[in-house]
Amino acid sequence: xxxxxxxxxxxxxxxxVGRATRWSLLLGLLFVFLVAIELMSKAIQLLAGSGLAxxxxxxxxxEVQNPFAGLxxxxxATVLVQSSSTTTATIVAVVGxxxxxxxxAVPMIMGANIGTTITNTIVSLGSLxxxxxxxxxxxxxTVHDFFNMLCVLTVLPLELATRWLSRAAAxxxxxxxxxxxxxxxDSPFKAAIKFTQQGLSNGLESxxxxxxxxxxxxxxxxxxxxxVSLVFITRTMRQLLAxxxxxxxxxxxxxxxxxxMAIGAGLTVAVQSSSITxxxxxxxxxxxxxxxxxxxxxxxxxNLGTTGTALIACAAQDGTAALTIAFVHLLFNxxxxxxFYPVPALRRLPIRLATGLAILADRSRWWxxxxxxxxxxxLPFLGWFIWHNR
Length: 390
Fold this sequence. Notes:
Helix content: over 70%
Shape: globular
Strand content: under 5%
Number of helices: 18
Oligomer: single chain
């Protein structure tokens, strides 16, 4: 039995220079991919307007005392600005102004957790024209969605009944307030991505574009770069990580759920974005070099890691409102991991839901449109609209 997969034979036949060249190409493509995500994010923020950045934030978030409307507001706000950190920071400011209570802000934080998952779901659409790849990519893109939705369905009713989450967060904030210098970590990776994105935006401005035209062109370029880079990332990963390397990677991640969780948390702290970490997993799963079961704990680690940056940044602020919101975020994500990961049947539930939806989406692309539009736009907007027009 000396037969090997063609992809593996191709990799084994590469010279050291050839391997180094392909790894360099892969890193370059990943950088282009991350710049494209940042470009799309900024374009969407500009198209959405400044309502979440100025005085409009108070009217958007304040006086929402219905928990389901608050959940909808959190989802909508994060989808529009493509950043749960931005949504959380805005909620902190509104809470600090006294226009919103901590208890009313908790469902919004949960909604932000759901809204931030749209990025990796959209990234999975880069494999739309390749059926087998798309099925794996869409499952990898939506497993984060289902985990956060299950967390909300479980934790939100408990919070409404007991207020344990807001009370525990307030208790922790009082203990930790003023105990840290609160210096914010500046990621060199994110700085390089932002620098390149800003350079592209400046180039478009120098070409005479401005306002919505600039945002529209930037969004189109971002979408195009995302799809093109994903195609070549998937191909390059399959060639480089096939065969023995693929099996070794999956064995390493298979050893303990804590190891991949730590990897996910570490990557998220390094790049300061859970969306970047989870989006990078999509092409790895699409190419077949990483199984969904092994990618899943990395996603959970990214969920935990994204709260670390907020905790560090909030420690320097006056008062306890910022820390309380940051601890709400941490305790919510930690509760989800403790509830769903230790029990095998519950651990597999988000994976089964994501896989089932991917099978339906593979059979009919209408499932893709219905899921993305319905989950991230129609349902949250209806929740917000009904509350404000009751």
